[in-house]
């Protein structure tokens, strides 16, 4: 008896077998997946897949964050707040093209501004960019973010204002916001999850020089490296990488044999021992240091020839050793111990501005 031949059209192929109805995934599973997405951009992409995924996911974190003005509050017993805008650094990576590093802000109303990535305190002067960037059509990496006050909200009488603000989004709970102030004695304002009352610490026993968020927990550090970890436990928080501390020793106005007098020591925080350990090399990493947000990226992601260097942005060095660096931006090569203007290092300089030619080709005119 001959075996009846199957109709090729009815025979399942590798392609048809691989096809699945992703919208039919259990809602409980979709909700759990959304809880594991710590980067806001990833959550937005996840929710935009279909209506089922969107309805089963966590909501987008509320961007409406406010920060109290401590001195005004103490004078008239009323709490006055500044509205905060989120400032983020993104790396846009097209296939076989030079990547582009951008800086944007998003205010509580959802309005987005494109800022010059090398300048600080310019939220009221966005760059003119006659195109619309669709992040859903591009490969984008979020490198870091912080929160700032728009310059329109800073009045001449505001002789103290937040020097640096960080926020921890706690999934479905309220955010924790913390910051330092520019003044002779720096104070810290802290609002924990679920609390409606701000805790303003005006008499700090240590001179804070930086604050940051690492694995969902705020860290504060003073001038000699002493570190305070705010006791906030966040569950289901995924984060790769390490917490780094950079000590910079500079000697301005002197010149020894034409060499820049600058020394940089890098330390890595040992979470088990709760102490800082020397880090001899950054390896493939490039570290970006600014007055506000600092972050790192791999040389391979940046498409540059080497890592193990530090790039100063946000007017970090307006002048160094008598040299007028463009915008105060420079590159320190840890291998050579040499400081150079960013404009002398095209590999790194071309990451910023102006954008590469492919930007105009793949973007939609406004």
TrEMBL record:
Region ranges (Disordered): 1-20
GO biological process, one term: protein ubiquitination
Compositional bias segments (type: Polar residues): 8-20
Occurrences of domain F-box (ranges): 22-55
Domain of life: Eukaryota
Domain KIB1-4 beta-propeller positions: 98-333
PANTHER family noted in UniProt: F-BOX PROTEIN SKIP23
Name by which UniProt lists this protein: F-box SKIP23-like protein
Gene source species: Medicago truncatula (Barrel medic)
């Amino acid at each position: 008896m001959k075996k009846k031949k199957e109709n090729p059209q009815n025979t399942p192929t590798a392609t048809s077998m691989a096809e699945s109805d992703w919208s039919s995934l259990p809602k409980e599973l979709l909700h759990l997946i959304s809880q594991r997405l710590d980067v806001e951009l990833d959550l937005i992409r996840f929710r935009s897949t279909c209506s089922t995924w969107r309805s089963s996911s966590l909501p987008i974190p509320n961007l409406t964050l406010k920060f109290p003005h401590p001195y005004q509050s103490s004078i008239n017993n009323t709490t006055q707040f500044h509205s905060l805008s989120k400032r983020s650094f993104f790396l846009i990576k097209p296939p076989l093209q030079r990547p582009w590093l951008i800086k944007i802000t998003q205010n509580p109303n959802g309005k987005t501004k494109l800022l010059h990535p090398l300048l600080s305190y310019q939220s009221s002067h966005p760059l003119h960019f006659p195109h619309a960037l669709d992040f859903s059509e591009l490969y984008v990496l979020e490198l870091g973010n912080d929160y700032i006050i728009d310059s329109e909200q800073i009045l001449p009488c505001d002789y103290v204002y937040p020097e640096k603000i960080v926020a921890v989004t706690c999934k479905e709970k309220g955010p924790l916001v913390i910051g330092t102030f520019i003044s002779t004695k720096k104070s810290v304002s802290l609002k924990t999850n679920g609390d409606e009352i701000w805790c303003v610490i005006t008499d700090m026993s240590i001179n804070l020089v930086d604050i940051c968020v690492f694995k969902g927990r705020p860290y504060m550090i003073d001038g000699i490296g002493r570190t305070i970890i705010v006791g906030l436990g966040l569950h289901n928080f995924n984060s790769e990488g390490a917490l780094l501390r950079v000590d910079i020793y500079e000697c301005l106005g002197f010149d020894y044999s034409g060499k820049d007098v600058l020394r940089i020591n890098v330390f890595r925080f040992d979470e088990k021992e709760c102490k800082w350990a020397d880090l001899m090399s950054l390896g493939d990493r490039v570290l970006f240091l600014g007055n506000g947000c600092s972050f790192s990226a791999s040389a391979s992601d940046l498409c540059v020839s080497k890592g193990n260097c530090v790039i100063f942005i946000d007017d970090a060095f307006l002048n160094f050793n008598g040299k007028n660096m463009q915008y105060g931006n420079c590159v320190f090569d840890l291998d050579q111990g040499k400081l150079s203007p960013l404009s002398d290092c095209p590999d790194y300089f071309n990451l910023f501005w102006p954008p590469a030619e492919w930007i105009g080709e793949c973007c939609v005119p406004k």
